[in-house]
Design goal:
Largest sheet: 6 strands, antiparallel, barrel
Number of strands: 21
Radius of gyration: 48 Å
Helix content: 25-40%
Strand content: 35-45%
Number of helices: 4
Length: about 400
């Protein structure tokens, strides 16, 4: 009997414990539900920004590198040892200026030999002319005697052959003189090539030395590079456009250039050329911009940013890009009610962007829009707009 009483006490105690636990859990769940219900009814703190009506430009900034508008390499047309270089890095160069001189000793000797050969050829021509003159006189005399029967046909044939031989000798002598004169002219030209001249076919009359590839005393072969000379009155900016921007670019389009070398300054330029094909590796197209550079401050090799207007609206509804959210597959904004207590969910279509603002179209987009805190909002949700520091109470 005593054992039965003990087991009864254990069962009662267990029942009391289970019941107490159930009662405590029920109270906790009721409290949580009540807290959630209370939280659902509280206004959501948000940040807002005004809706603007103004002109808007869609700008795109592309990065690229400056190149010289024109560049060429000065190289000697003949080989030789460099005796003098008249210009150095950064020096201005005039069109037709002698920028270097090579040792011309061998070519000077070759010119002297060519002059001597010409003198010999001219002496031979003089001798041939005299011989022909004598042969012509003999032919004239013998022909007259032959006509009077005082000279035989054989004598006439002999002087005629001498005359023809003299004429041939004169022709050969003339050819030798012409060849000797050509050889002398070639020797003079080759010697003149030892004076290396900077010549370019078009453009301005003055350019700048961009690089120097040899020093005085160096031996160069023909066409070895000596100097690089560039035109800096204009510079070319090479950028690469993606498929998204390609269609909005056109030759003559204005661009604004900036570089870290001159913080805060802007340089004007224009689109010059657009490649008709894209690179298969980068899926980008080469675009060349051109900018005037009268003071020479922009230098080839500089990294630059090129900003241009791709699209423009004269009057648009503009909101911060942070105001856009996605709900049920569409883009919406939350418009704040005039008294600032609730919001209305408005679907919008998105237009051009400029930095952190975007043009939108939709019904009822005016006043203010929510830019932070939209995740907890729905159409008609209550909100509270915290007051800015120093502005007083909440709105």
């Amino acid at each position: 009997m005593r054992a039965i009483g003990v087991w009864s006490a254990v069962v009662v105690a267990s029942a009391l414990l289970v019941g107490g636990a159930w009662w405590a859990r029920t109270r906790a769940d009721d409290g949580a539900a009540g807290s959630a219900t209370a939280a659902a009814g509280r206004p959501t703190p948000v940040e807002v920004a005004p809706v603007q009506r103004r002109a808007l430009q869609q700008r795109r900034t592309l990065t690229g590198t400056l190149e010289a508008a024109a560049a060429f390499v000065v190289a000697p047309k003949v080989g030789g040892r460099v005796e003098r270089i008249a210009v150095d890095l950064g020096d201005p160069v005039q069109r037709g200026q002698v920028v270097a001189e090579l040792d011309d000793a061998e070519l000077r000797q070759a010119e002297a030999e060519a002059q001597a050969e010409l003198a010999v050829a001219e002496a031979r021509r003089t001798a041939a002319d005299k011989s022909l003159e004598i042969a012509e006189r003999n032919f004239t005399r013998v022909r007259g005697l032959s006509e009077r029967g005082m000279a035989s046909d054989q004598e006439l044939d002999t002087v005629r052959a001498a005359k023809l031989e003299g004429e041939a000798a004169v022709a050969v002598a003339k050819a030798q003189v012409t060849r000797a004169r050509a050889a002398l002219r070639a020797a003079q030209v080759r010697r003149a090539y030892t004076r290396v001249v900077a010549e370019w076919p078009q453009g301005d009359e003055q350019r700048v030395v961009a690089a120097r590839f040899a020093d005085e005393g160096a031996t160069l072969d023909a066409n070895d590079p000596l100097l690089s000379i560039v035109d800096l009155d204009e510079v070319v900016v090479v950028v690469f456009a993606t498929e998204r921007d390609y269609a909005a670019l056109a030759p003559g389009q204005a661009v604004e250039l900036s570089t870290d070398a001159y913080p805060g300054e802007r340089f004007e330029g224009r689109v010059e050329r657009i490649a008709p094909v894209f690179s298969e590796q980068s899926r980008q197209a080469r675009v060349e911009l051109r900018a005037p550079n009268p003071d020479g401050r922009l230098r080839p090799g500089m990294f630059v940013r090129a900003s241009t207007v791709l699209a423009e609206l004269s009057q648009a509804t503009v909101v911060p890009e942070d105001a856009l959210v996605q709900r049920d597959g569409e883009t919406v904004v939350f418009v704040v009610s005039p008294d600032g207590s609730t919001v209305s969910q408005r679907p919008v279509s998105v237009g051009i962007r400029d930095g952190d603002v975007v043009a939108v179209e939709g019904e009822g987009i005016e006043g203010r829009v929510v830019t932070l805190g939209q995740q907890a909002l729905h159409d008609g949700a209550p909100i509270v707009i915290p007051a800015e520091p120093g502005s007083g109470a909440e709105t």
